[in-house]
Amino acid sequence: MTDITMDFVTDWQNEMIKEMEEEGLRFKKSLPKDSLLIKYFTYCRKRGLQKPYNIFKSNEFNCPEEYQKGLSNLEEILKSGGDISPYLSKDVEKLKNDLMFNDWGVLHLHLGEKLESNNKYIERTGPLLFLYFKGENVYFINIFQHQDWTKKEVLQIMYSNWPELIQPYIMKIDGFQGLHPEYTEDDHLKLRKAGITVMLELVNENGEKFPIIPTGMGITASGDSMNDVRHYQHQIKEIRSLEDMVRSNIDFVKQTMKSLNVNIPTSLSFKLVYKDGRFQVQEENTGLFFDLK
């Protein structure tokens, strides 16, 4: 019986954290690895695809004249597939939770015209652009202020202009008369800060109320994005499946070693290694890489 050791999840986590460090992100290494990677997935979504986007503006969209230049610069970056990182909150590199983005999927960007003295972030502005990414499209909702993080008007504008964005989140409740108990936007903010996901109600073209779940799939008790928690769980499931695949292909591994005139170790130790732009399986005693697909 050949002894087999592997821990692909830890290997993958360590490689991802190394990538985070190389990007210059500042985070507490004392945080659990799963928490760090969930927050990293959120960070990557906030940066967008860095590919050209199609820009759509709501009928309500109105940018004050003094921010038009900053807005135009940002539009050119999005259209050309550039990096919008300088326009993000400074908290992004610390991987701090952006509760509106985690809850609703709505991102806010600053509208400064030039970089600050550190050449890292665009000059901060009071008014902010609220936008929503979907595939290769980006939807400019409107210009809002700091603290408008739970303003229901944000989602109402999305529905009024692009109902297809809201449609997947509509809950079908016969005879819906409104949410009870009713809560204010300030109540919502407090609940969100407590890590509580809440339903909302919007109004259709006939003036009828209807309920929706958050357009970002809501948040967890830790304030993290439910979308990114699910993505992390999916990644772990895929990695565990790869471990199972290795175990079920030990005979193939040994035959490959034999065909290469490599001595077969009495115990096999496998590691998940990032090489040539992708993750590969390596047997550590022999240094051999295996493609088990």
Uncertain segments? none
Question: SSE order, as H and E?
Answer: EHHEHHEEEHHHEEHHEEE
* Oligomerization: single chain
Helical fraction equals: 25-40%
Strand content range: 15-25%
Radius of gyration using CA atoms only? 24 Å
The description of the largest β-sheet is:
4 strands, mixed
* Average of pLDDT: 95
- Helix/strand-derived category reads alpha+beta
Shape: elongated
Rounded to the nearest angstrom, the distance between the terminal CA atoms is 24 Å
- The neighbouring-strand order within the major sheet is 1-8-9-10
Q: How many helix segments?
A: 9
In words, what does this structure look like?
- By secondary structure, the chain is an alpha+beta fold.
- It is built from 9 helices and 10 strands.
- The strands form 3 sheets. A 4-stranded mixed beta sheet has the order 1-8-9-10. It has a 4-stranded mixed beta sheet with strand order 2-5-4-3, with helices on both faces.
- A hairpin with a 5-residue loop joins strand 6 (200-203) and strand 7 (209-212).
- The chain is elongated and about 75 Å long.
- It starts with a strand and ends with a strand.
- The mean pLDDT is 95.
